[in-house]
Every structure is written in structure tokens, then in C-alpha cells.
């Protein structure tokens, strides 16, 4: 991934409720968000109990905050215990290594993706498959999922294609979608200027928009 590309992994501390503690995203009070500190024995015990309950009842799949809390507990437990196997043994119940690994990866997604999970725009079950992909392709799959309203099955298929060696463009094309294709609405004046600039430069509106966005978004990370 290019050095100036946005981060594809979590940058905030493991277990910290950066998204879950934002009432504008979750609709909850910030002090209701549980923080899991992998270096605190009592907090780690809470994480272990949370993971066990989470593994035995993921029926709250429609509650994105509930799912993110379970993912945070999984990640913190792994960090505190030192391995997926040790974390699974500590949690017990139905908490398998595979279960904990999948949800820990969701917690490790970058903030820009977790925001959409918290808002219900990316289902937690879909986030599990997005998290299987590494690097910039992870971000591109998340954005394509939003742009094209991809189903969980389609996201899983694209993720598998990328992990099997396909480019994100080819994996999406196999599902009938094009990377970077989205619909936007601009106001009348901007629309007129966009068309004028494209005509004067002997190019198309997409090129003008791309050049303008690349310039405007250089500092986004």
C-alpha cells in the first residue's frame, strides 16, 4: 500500500470505545460504553465473561453496538492472554479460536470503517468478511459495499477472491460491480462549472472530479 494511503488497521488502543463511546454515532451516552483494558486484570476478566456471553448469544446481530462491544472484548482478551488459543480457553463456553479471531479482526478495522458499522450501514456480519482482507483492498471493499449496497454473501465472495489472489477490481467485477463507481449529487452552480471545465479541458466530468478530489483530500489519512 502506498505510504500516503489511509490506514487499513486500527490506530486507537485495543478495547478503547472510540466508536461505541461516541453518542452521535451510537445514540448512547458515552459513559455507557464499556472499555476493556488488556493490561488490567479486572477488566480482562470482564472481557472474558463478555466474550463467553457473546459467543453463546450472537442473536443481537441487529444491535451493532452490542456486536462491536463483543468484538472489543475478543480483541482485548487476545491481547491480554497473548494468543487466540489462550483467549478461547479463558473465555470458555462456545468461544472458539475461530470465533475470537474473526471478531478481533472486526475490532481491528480502521475507524473510518467502524463508523459505518456503528451506524448500521455495514452489517457486523459483513464487517467480518471485510476484515479478512488486508491493506488498501480492505478499505476499497468497505467503500464498494456501501456504494453498491452489497449483500453479505457478495462481500464474502469478493473477500475470498482477493485472498485467493485476485485484484479487488477483478473480484468486484466477478460480482458485476465496478470499483470507484458511485452516484453523487452536486448543486446547480457546481454542476455547470464541472461541465464547463470538462469541455474546456477536452476531458470528461469523472476526470475533473477525480483531479479535484485528489487535490482536496491530500491530507486525509
From TrEMBL:
Residues 37-176 form the DUF7119 domain. Gene3D superfamilies: 1.10.10.2830. Pfam families: DUF7119. Residues 7-23 have a biased composition (Basic and acidic residues). InterPro entries: DUF7119. It comes from the Archaea. Residues 1-28 are annotated as: Disordered. It comes from Haloarcula nitratireducens. This is DUF7119 domain-containing protein.
